[in-house]
Input
Amino acid sequence: MKDICKAESTPFPNVEYTDIHFYITFKQSREYLKMAEAEEKVGEKVVRKGGQKRWSELTERQAEILQLIKENSKISRKELSDKLNINPSAVQKHIEKLKEKEFIERIGPDKGGYWKAL
Output
């Protein structure tokens, strides 16, 4: 594990033991934290392994919806509608665009499921 962390320039994990369990805590690298900060800024490119996503592809409203989903993955369409003061049908259209552009996906059913920001 330490060899992989060294090769990836990431901090070594913290290992703790009890009588019956062990816990491994991985720490975030500075590079990861910089990338996470860049994701929060609307209009900047988000670079990930396997391709690029650009925040500039999103409308202002789509970016607002994405941010609300990141803050609360279990937020409902109704709650989004209320927070943004727009019709539920408009929220639905924006969500469909976000799914098309592969910024979000729905995990589980409408009731009891959650949104996953990709």
User: Anything to note?
Assistant: The chain is about 40% helix and 20% strand. The chain has two domains: 1-40, 54-118. The longest strand covers residues 14-17.
